[in-house]
Structures are given as structure tokens and as C-alpha cells.
Design a protein that fits this description.
single chain; mainly beta
Length: 943
């Protein structure tokens, strides 16, 4: 089964013919003005007008003026929505947010009518406007906009450029929301000019105004030496919820807001401040893209999300597993007892909390078992890396960067000298000794490669040159071998020997490959197909190319469910095995040509497959679970590990769905895929209810139909449709769930619906316009909307349930209900299950009496080091919600940081210490800190 591709931050390409179009527009407007009859202004009217403007133009706070505007077409500007570049494919997606316009008041004076927003400056929406940098000074001032500090900024989208369009790739971006009529805005222009000149190699300054093009262009040409754009429809203003200008937002290359504020003077954001952010010290620079904000993480011995890849060393003493839960785990294997041993350690990868960043998609063990390689998706920039770890200590040895897109597969050569990495746009080979890239092939047509395998060293040819084969979604196998002979890994060079086209179909794309133990054949498994092919190959003694030919396809007749995308040979080569989106393993005797057997020993969908000596097989599943099968396909007693998470797969719509109460605070759900055990949790009462209680009975499933529109192809599909028209998603994005919201005034008569996908929760209106999207930590297997239309609720593949504000997708709360799956710890009384509820934006939590053991906090230490991880007092005592913040979050549909700010402002609680300060103190006081590697004992981190 294929793995999710990396989703890169959308690269916007705006097609503007600015100069000529603007000139034509201005000439047209000038002609219209000249044709109008002249107006005579009385002295009284003139004086009154000047007095009025002076009254509104002078003060500490300047109200944003929104004037009627022409359409982009009338402005002479052609603009197209941004398209997301997803591994070589640009998929334009309309993202036009259409909230109800803010009310205006009209004030009349002689000969003049001025429109202005009739609102007073709101209370601050956060404790302070902060700088996300340890080296920058604090900003103890309020902001009059939605705070994005430390979070992903909204997408940059304007209607037209007054100047040339800048290249933002790899740059910091300073956005200035301004207007020509605003004195403080004009006063800061020289400072912004200086910023652009001083930091032009690292920083792009962009002024964004909602005024008429002619005014902005005139001022820009005379005063501005940075980039300038217009946002007449105020899309960006609405996204940032700006209610006072000037408003500055400084965004780093990863899209994270590092500074934001409402400067009362141009010097409020000084040159030193900007330098500290865009030119940080070496220690600060190591944290770029990996967040300085501590992350609350579930802490469990077993994985809490799907196991994507597995690897075993040659001696079969260590098993490595990579998971969507953003960890890699090392397990001890006991060959003498055919069972799993204890968990050796958990390696937590750099990543964030609410999105897919940090997921481990690939893992490999060196043949001698001393080195672990892990890869996945760690940044939005596309510059990915391989992480190398010492298997004895779990400490990071090296980070190998420069890979294009998520690392989807890793494989060590049989001698341990080379490591091949498959990514979204090709492959790379690195020397293991020092990480040097010695070969790369990007000619993969922009398609991902999910599989690679090395030819073994055989007794027939012990001196054969290293060679390997890869798969690609483009339907081709690529064979590589050494170009010449070299005894040094650093000087060895590979070449592509031959490309063999074996399939080209959307419904049959090569995923995995496995070279037979004799090195003469390669088996290939396909996504969305139960076909398996075996291909002959051998080097040519007379030419630089290899001979490749089709051999046979094992019997898969009658297997019409799932796919067989994973293939593996038994260690002795007498069997061929295949698995995938099915709970069964298919086994063929006689090296794939003989009798077909079906092994039903898998407890779940097979996602990892490793053959071992003695005919044993290790499987990893999406449950998540681990199982060891004997030579007959039976599960070995003691050879199983089950994830202690709720399995939400299939729980959508009217198929054992996620039920939600009218106010959204109570959820009811099955604990397992079969739906035999149910539970209900109330975020307002902070406890579980029996599933048959009156409270739980008041919950309702998601609505799947609407009288004015129809959503089709949404269940495990990548081609959802609205009224027969495609809904444009990210490339290869798979939808899993649907919920149609109740019609409310906010929906403006168009209705709204949610789609839960592998990467996002998306909200659309009934005409197909995307209202908002939220990146999510795992597959959104179920979604629902509260009956009052205020809250969106989703259940994810990591076992968590999360609440979002329906209006804009703001994350509000997250719940992790513990689900012990072994029979000894089954709990019949649902009220006594362990759980933890937390606020993603502050880290405050509440839990059952023993639920604190389920969580910890991760602090990324940069891209070149293990993150720190800590659980237990004193951190938990400070972060425990003692003021009822969490219970107010859903009641008021406000994020915890705003409620926290209210409590501090009213003096009801002291200003909390920064979480990073608390965590740093806790970690520095720990006596057994091992560089962020959590050594586990019964699921508890030893610190």
C-alpha cells in the first residue's frame, strides 16, 4: 500500500499584467473623471471636511477604512488562484473565504460622505504580541488582529502586484498591512525601505493595501522601494482578522509567524529585531523549521498510529518500526523463544503537533545492527533529510539533508557501505561512512518512488558489484549498478543500467519490490491491484546494459479485495509473500509458481512485511499492531503487540459513526473496528459515560445529505465530487469522511460540509468554495458537526478526537481516550477508562487520575539533534488546568490562549511562565537525560 505523499506549501503563481493593465485602468478613470461636471465646494463644506478628516486621522489608533471597490476585471488585473506544487504537479485550488462583511456606519458632511468601520478597538486576543525567537526582545503590546505567533501563517494571496512579483522561495517575508491615508503607515515606510535594503538576501518586504490601485501605485512609485500589492477584496485582511493598521507580520521560510504587532512608531520593530530573526546565531539557526514551542505528545510504549515500515538486522536481534505517530521504536527480538522482547527505546523525530510534519515514513537497519536510518516528512520547504541513529543509545549520529520531498523508503546495501533513499522526485545513494551523496537520479517524471532493494551477495558471485532496483509510480523499474570498480565507498559511483516499463495505469502503480535471494528475479507489488509480477534480470557481460524480461505472475485469481502492494521473499527463496490493504497474507510455494495459501494470522491491514529465518514472518499493521507468524502463518504466542488506541476506521456516516451532541461537548464512539464496545466522553463534565446513558443517547451521527447539493466519492477515494464536479484536493490526497453542517445564518444559504482526508480537515460551502483547512496529525477517519453549527469534531488515526471552530477551523481541544486491547487489562466499566484532554495552543490539560502517564512534552532542539522529551512533575503540576479553561473552550468556542489572556487581564490568575522555560528547567534537572531519547519501561519514560 502506498504511503501518503508529502504536501508542500502551496507556491502561488499570480499571472498579472500589472503595468500595462494599470496604466490602461488609470487612463480610463482619468477620462471618466474629466467627463464629470465640475463640483463647486463651499468654504463651509471645505472647513467641515478638513475638520472631520483631522478628527479621524489623528490619534493612537487608526481605524481601517474599507471603500467600495471595483472587481479585479474592472481594475484591469488578471489573477488566478494559487496552485499548490505537489511533487511536480501544480493543482490549482480556489481558496476564497467569504465571511459576512463587517458592518459599516455612514457619516455625512456637506459635499462629502466618508465610510468607516463603526467598531472600537477590541480587547487584545492574546497575552502579548510575541517574538518567536529567543534572541529577539519581547513585545509587551496588544495586537488588533488574530494572533498567529508560532503558527503557520495564512496563505499569501493578493489580487495584483503594483511592483514585480517577488520570489519568496527560501526567504523571510515581512508583510505590512497599510493604507496611503494612514499617517503611521506612511511614517514606517522609510524603515521598511531600510529593512529591504539591509536584508535583501534573506528578507522580502511586501506592502499590502486594500485601496484603489491608482492611489497605491502613485505612492509606491514616489516612496516605496520594496514590493507592493493590492488586496481589494480583503481576503488576507479577513484571514488575519485585522482591525487596526499598520499591522506587521514577519514569516520565516517554513511559513511560521516569528513576529507580529501593531507598531505605534516605526522603531517598534527595529533593525536589531529583524537581524535577530533573519540572521540568528548558529544555535538559533539549528531550530529553523522545527518550532521553538513545546509540543504535548501522547506517551505510549506501543505506537499510537499506523506502522509504515519495518526493518530487522542480519542477526535478527533488533526490530525497528516507523510510524505515523512521529516515532521510531527499537524492539528486542528473542530468537530462542520466537517472541518479542522488551522495547529498547523510542526515538522521537523533530516535528510539530497538529500536522503531519514529523511522520516517519521509512526506516532501515544496517546489516550489523549498529545504525538506524529514518526518513519521512519533516518540513514544508521540500528540503528533507535522512536521520542516522546509534541503535545502542538512540542518539542522533548525523542528519543527511538535501533530499527532494518526503523520504519514502530506505535500504542499506548488503555490505553496509551504501544507503539508498527513495523520495518524491527520485533517489539518492549516500556513503554510510560520512553521509556523502555519491549518486542521484531525479529523472522519475515527478512521480514518487516507494520501493528499493539491493541484490544480495551470493556464494556464486561473492565479488559482484553492488546493484539495486527501484519502483516508481510511473510504471517503471530502474536498475542501477556500480560504474567501474572502486574499493572506497566515497569514490564509488553508480549508474542507471536499464529502465523497464512494466505498467502504466492509475489503478496499477508499482509500490514495493523485492530481489530474490539468488539475485536473479525481482517481485513487484502494485497499489490498488492484487496483481504481483516477477521479473527476470541479469547483468550483461558484453554491454553496459542489463537484460530484463517478464517471468510470470503468481496466481491471484479470485482475490478481488484490497491490494497486494507489499511483496517479500522468504529467506531461503522457496516462498513468495504478498500483503497490503487486506487482513490476509498471500503465500505462494515453489518461489511463487506453486500452491497458493492464505494466511489469516494478521490482526489488521498489513503495512509492513519482513521475512525471517525458519520461515517466520513479521508484520506491522495500521491498527497499529505487530505480530510474528510461524512457518504456517499462525501467530506465535507472545509474539504480538497491540496499540492501545481507539480504532476509528470505518466509523463514519451511518456505519458505526462518530456521534456528537447538539452543543458539541459530548462525543460517542466505538472503541474498536467491530463496534462491539462503545464509550461516550463529555468535555464539559470531564468524564466517560456508559454508552447507553441518556446523555450518550442525545448524540447524533454526521449528516451525509443536503437538499441543495450532493457530495459523492468521498469514502476512501481521491476523486470526491460536488454535484458531479470534481473537488480539487492536493495531489494524491485521499478522502475518508464527510459531514454536512446544519444550515445556519453563517452559511449564508449555501450550506457547508466537511471532508476528512489523510492530511487535512477541509470545510467547503455548498458551491464548492473552500472556507478553511486544517492540517491534521493523522487520517481523519470520521468527522461531524455539532447541531448548533458552532463546532467541527474529527476522529483521527492516532486515536485522538479533536474539536475545531466551525467558523474558521481554529483548533480548540484534543482528547486521547486510552484503549487497552489485551484481555488482562480490559475494562468493563467505561467510566474508569484513562483519558487526557488538552488545549493544543497552550498545553494545559486535564486527565483521569492515572491519565497523566499518557502524555509528555517534546521540545525540538533543532534539525541536528534529538528533541527533548519530558513527562511528570513539576511540568504536569504547572500545566494542569486549575482554572476551568478547557471547559470554557467549547462553551465559548474560543481557543484556550484567549481565555487564558482574559483570566490574566482580570487578575484571576498570574501570568503563566512560558512553557519552554518550564520544560527547559524540567529537562535540565533530570538526572538521566539522554539527548531526547525516551527509554521506556512499561510505557513510562525514565528520566
Amino acid at each position: 500500500m502506498g504511503l501518503p505523499l508529502q504536501r508542500k506549501t502551496r507556491k502561488r503563481s499570480i499571472d498579472l499584467k500589472a503595468e500595462n493593465s494599470l496604466d490602461r485602468y488609470l487612463a480610463k478613470k482619468a477620462k471618466e473623471e474629466n467627463s464629470k461636471p465640475a463640483r463647486s465646494a463651499s468654504v463651509f463644506g471645505l472647513v467641515t471636511t478638513i475638520t472631520f478628516l483631522a478628527f479621524f486621522g489623528i490619534g493612537a489608533f487608526y481605524i481601517i477604512q474599507r471603500k467600495p471597490f471595483d472587481s479585479p476585471e474592472e481594475m484591469g488585473i488578471s489573477a488566478k488562484p494559487f496552485g499548490q506544487v505537489v511533487q511536480g504537479t501544480e493543482a490549482p485550488i480556489d481558496r476564497v473565504t467569504k465571511p459576512a462583511p463587517a458592518p459599516k456606519a455612514s457619516v455625512s458632511v456637506p459635499s462629502t460622505t466618508v465610510e468607516a468601520k463603526a467598531v472600537a478597538p477590541p480587547e487584545p486576543t492574546s497575552l502579548q504580541a510575541l517574538t518567536l525567537s529567543e534572541t529577539s526582545p519581547a513585545q509587551p503590546k496588544s495586537i488588533w488582529a488574530k494572533s498567529y505567533i508560532g503558527r503557520k501563517a495564512p496563505e499569501f494571496e493578493v489580487e495584483g502586484w503594483i511592483t514585480d512579483k517577488p520570489n519568496l522561495e527560501g526567504k523571510f517575508v515581512l508583510i505590512d498591512f497599510w493604507a496611503t491615508w494612514c499617517p503611521p503607515c506612511r511614517a514606517e515606510t522609510p524603515q521598511l525601505n531600510a529593512f529591504q535594503e539591509k536584508f535583501r538576501d534573506k528578507l522580502v518586504v511586501i506592502g499590502v493595501s486594500d485601496e484603489q490601485v491608482g492611489k497605491v501605485k502613485d505612492y509606491t512609485q514616489r516612496h516605496i522601494r520594496y514590493y507592493s500589492a493590492v488586496d481589494r477584496s480583503r481576503k488576507m485582511y479577513k484571514q488575519y482578522e485585522i482591525e487596526g493598521i499598520p499591522h506587521l507580520v514577519l514569516i520565516d521560510p517554513e511559513g511560521v509567524v516569528r513576529w507580529e504587532g501593531f507598531p505605534q512608531e516605526a522603531t517598534d520593530l527595529t533593525e536589531e529585531d529583524v537581524a535577530a530573526i533573519v540572521s540568528p546565531t548558529a544555535s538559533d539557526r539549528s531550530n529553523e523549521g522545527f518550532g521553538a514551542t513545546p509540543i504535548l505528545r501522547v506517551n505510549s510504549e506501543m505506537h499510537t498510529a499506523a506502522i509504515r515500515r519495518m526493518a530487522v538486522d542480519a542477526a535478527e536481534t533488533t526490530l525497528a518500526t516507523a510510524s505515523d505517530d512521529k516515532t521510531v521504536k527499537l524492539w528486542e527480538l528473542k530468537a530462542e523463544s520466537d517472541t518479542f522482547g522488551s522495547l529498547k527505546c523510542t526515538i522521537r523525530l523533530p516535528g510539530d503537533a497538529g500536522s503531519s510534519l514529523g511522520k516517519a515514513y521509512s526506516v532501515a537497519l544496517s546489516p550489523d545492527g549498529t545504525l538506524l536510518a529514518a526518513g519521512g516528512w519533516f518540513t514544508d520547504s521540500g528540503d528533507e533529510a535522512i536521520y542516522l541513529y546509534d541503535t545502542e543509545t538512540g542518539a542522533m549520529r548525523q542528519r543527511i539533508g538535501g533530499l527532494s520531498g518526503a523520504v519514502l523508503h530506505l535500504a542499506f546495501s548488503p555490505d553496509g557501505r551504501f544507503l539508498v533513499a527513495c523520495a518524491n522526485r527520485g533517489i539518492q545513494v549516500h556513503a554510510v561512512s560520512d553521509g556523502t551523496k555519491i549518486f542521484a537520479d531525479t529523472d522519475y517524471g515527478g512521480d514518487p518512488s516507494y520501493g528499493a532493494d539491493w541484490s544480495p551477495v551470493t556464494s556464486d558471485n561473492p565479488d559482484a558489484s553492488p546493484s539495486f532496483v527501484t519502483t516508481c509510480y510511473d510504471g517503471k523499474l530502474r536498475f542501477y549498478t556500480v560504474d567501474g570498480k572502486s574499493d572506497s565507498a566515497e569514490t564509488t559511483r553508480f549508474r542507471r543500467a536499464v529502465v523497464a516499463k512494466i505498467a502504466r495505469s492509475k489503478d496499477r502503480r508499482p509500490v514495493s519490490c523485492a530481489v530474490s535471494p539468488d539475485g536473479r528475479q525481482v517481485a513487484v507489488g502494485y497499489e490498488k491491484s492484487t496483481r504481483v509480477d516477477v521479473i527476470n534480470f541479469s547483468p550483461s557481460s558484453t554491454s553496459p546494459t542489463w537484460s530484463v524480461s517478464y517471468a510470470f505472475s503468481p496466481d491471484t485469481s479470485g482475490i478481488d479485495y484490497g491490494d497486494l502492494s507489499l511483496v517479500e521473499w522468504s529467506r531461503d527463496g522457496t516462498r513468495l509473500l504478498a500483503g497490503g490493504r487486506s487482513d490476509d497474507l498471500i503465500v505462494w510455494e515453489d518461489a511463487g509458481r506453486g500452491e497458493r495459501k492464505i494466511w489469516r494470522g494478521s490482526p489488521d491491514t498489513v503495512m509492513g512485511l519482513v521475512s525471517m529465518s525458519g520461515g517466520r514472518t513479521l508484520i506491522g499493521t495500521g491498527g497499529p499492531s505487530l505480530a510474528m507468524l510461524d512457518a504456517h502463518g499462525e501467530r506465535i504466542p507472545g509474539g504480538e503487540r497491540l496499540g492501545e488506541v481507539v480504532d476509528f476506521r470505518g466509523h463514519r456516516g451511518d456505519q458505526r459513526p462518530l456521534f456528537v451532541s447538539y452543543d458539541g461537548a459530548l462525543v460517542r464512539f466505538p472503541f474498536d473496528y467491530s463496534g462491539t464496545e462503545w464509550g461516550a466522553f463529555s468535555a464539559s463534565d470531564l468524564r466517560f459515560f456508559a454508552s447507553g446513558s441518556p446523555e450518550a443517547a442525545a448524540t447524533r451521527p454526521a449528516t451525509l445529505r443536503h437538499p441543495r447539493f450532493r457530495v459523492d466519492n468521498w469514502a476512501d477515494r481521491d476523486d470526491p465530487a460536488l454535484n458531479g464536479r470534481p473537488i480539487h484536493l492536493d495531489h494524491h490526497e485521499m478522502t475518508h469522511s464527510l459531514a454536512i453542517a446544519p444550515d445556519t445564518a453563517e452559511a449564508s444559504g449555501k450550506g457547508r460540509f466537511l471532508l476528512g482526508t489523510a492530511w487535512n480537515v477541509l470545510c467547503f460551502d455548498g458551491s464548492g468554495v473552500e472556507i478553511w483547512r486544517q492540517s491534521v496529525p493523522a487520517e481523519a477517519w470520521a468527522v461531524n458537526v455539532s447541531g448548533d453549527g458552532r463546532l467541527a469534531v474529527a476522529a483521527f488515526g492516532d486515536g485522538s478526537i479533536r474539536w475545531f471552530r466551525m467558523r474558521d477551523g481554529e483548533p480548540l481541544l484534543a482528547l486521547f481516550p486510552h484503549n487497552p486491547r489485551d484481555q488482562e487489562s480490559k475494562i468493563e466499566n467505561q467510566d474508569s477508562r484513562d483519558w487526557v484532554l488538552w488545549a493544543p495552543d497552550t498545553g494545559h490539560f486535564r486527565s483521569s487520575p492515572d491519565g497523566e502517564r499518557l502524555i509528555g512534552w517534546q521540545l525540538n532542539r533543532g534539525k541536528d539533534a534529538n528533541p527533548d522529551f519530558h513527562s511528570g512533575d513539576p511540568l504536569q503540576s504547572e500545566m494542569r488546568d486549575q482554572h476551568g479553561i478547557l471547559q470554557r473552550v467549547l462553551k465559548e468556542a474560543r481557543p484556550a490562549r484567549e481565555i487564558l489572556a482574559d483570566l490574566v487581564t482580570k487578575g484571576e490568575m498570574a501570568r503563566p511562565r512560558p512553557l519552554s522555560e518550564i520544560l527547559s528547567g524540567a529537562i535540565s534537572s533530570a538526572s538521566s537525560n539522554q539527548g531526547g531519547v525516551a527509554r521506556e519501561n512499561g510505557g513510562r519514560s525514565i528520566r
